[in-house]
Fold:
Amino acid sequence: MRRRPVAGVTALSLFLALAAAPLMAQESRQHLVYWAGTPQAVEVYKIFGREPGPTVMIMGGIQGDEPGGFLCADLYTGVSLKRGNLIVLPRANFKSIAQFNRGTEGDMNRKFQGDLGRDDPYRDIVALIKSLMAESDLFLNLHDGSGYYRPTYESDLANPNRYGQSIIADADSYTHGPTGRVIPLASYAEEVIARVNREIAEPLQHFHFFNTRTGAADSPYKEQRQSASYYALTQLGIPAYGVEASKQLPNLELKVYHHNLAVTAFLDLFGVEMDRPSLNLPSPRLGYVVITAGDHPPVVALDGQTLMVAPGETVTVVEVAANYDRGLSAAVEGLGGWNDLGRPFTLERSASITVRKDQTVIGRVRLELLPEAGPPRLSSPVAWRSVRSGEPAVLASATPEPPPARPAAAGEEAASVSGSLAAPGRVTGFLVDVDGRTMEVAPGGTLVVPVGAIVTMVDFTMEGGGPPPGPGVVMNLRGFVPKEKMTANDGEDRGFPADTARDMMPSFSQGGRGRDYAINIERGKTVLASATLSIIKPRLESVTIEVDGKTLILSLGSRTILPEGTAFTVTEIKLAEDLTLSRPVFTLGGLPLAPELPLNLSVPSYAANLAVFNGETLAGKVTLAPR
Structure:
């Protein structure tokens, strides 16, 4: 990262160096906390690419009531870079953020012109921001603004006096006097806007370039001369922009997403290349192996377990779940080839399944023959050891049987065992809350929910209403780790809501496709019962409306022309695969509507999309246009 000498900043270098407490310093990144241990603590992240390139500074939260900006900046604190560098200041004004106030001590974004007095509460943080901008080649200041900026008047929400959905610069082009550098601000912004708008379906939400002409004598935005972006442009000679997501977007997730589109487009344009995926390379670890035998239900086997199968059964390794979703193979030693995943074979003698990630063995499951025909079960007629851990394998029956009863002592009546000492019974059901409704799924069954549903593991039921099968039993939604357990996950997910649009890890889904996730009842390494949570992206098929006594069925992507102001009622939303919306969100022309049917609406004065979401996940849209 480069550093420019800046008046009023160089003298503060020693002070800022002493104020910053480095929490983490590696070759690829630094995490700095300025004024640590005080309410004014400010966190800065510096990420260095493996190849040299420009430095982009991303700042959010300079105004505290604009969460889309600072939450988007958060997304870039943990990235790794192939080329170029990032400076990320997610929360420039944390006090105002905590109080959801534009500026508890005034507007910090009007403090960058001239020297601030010693008593100004923003003096030190503004000096820090200036010093960070001096290391940068591009400055992005992320905001949430009102309405939808348009160069000409379209409506009360979309006009030149609004700020939302805009890329703001202080000029079309600027020549920096000290260096003579010509900065084509409008050209850069229009390229970014073209890229971003290709990803936004709703026309009202498209971005536009907003030139405030800040330095012009007749500019109506002269107050912007005190802003951070104007300082970066005129004093440091670097391109600087305000990125504004609309406060009228239907939800916070969409604001963050639109910010992300713009920031990523700027990074691509300026040659800062992020790694996709991250360079975090954990040691490969086997989760489980799913095996079928004949027509019996699938069995979930862990590393080191033994599966007993009737002689002559057709056995198939259906799936390998690990912390990677590529490079996995399963070889049936002595019976198959180098990768028998998905290939049926007939078991006539003992064998073992060796699971590899690329060339590394990550686990084995032994196959043994039952003495007679019957369903497969997990047990161990011969003791053997897990290849991964070197410890004796944990073995269990697929349908646990109670241990033999202890003979009663003399004079002692036989008594039923209860509580934690009870013999384990059979799990008969999984109780899962889906957006406030409790659903029950049987072992081996599948619960289908749309992407965006909030699911919470509630509990499981036992045969005859019996007690749980001993201590240490957890209900584990594979691929989900509660935020509260990120540093110490015990596998117990009961009571923790999982957002199916954001919280699931596809590498732990079946086949790595990000759709089917196991719900396991586990005791240690033993899976006592399993069901499947199937998360399907909702896809709109049609919208049914009633207008002037007629029923119209509007198919996905269709355009319907009706007289402006015509009243109509949305009576039905139909999704593919018989899905239902668990968290319905409806918008018309980007404006949120009531979340339940029927919807009584009228045709607007402009072509508008009637969009259907499950949470923040778009299912589809139809267009209504005035005649």
Observations:
- Residues 3-27, 380-424 have pLDDT under 50 and may be disordered.
- The first helix runs from residue 13 to 19.
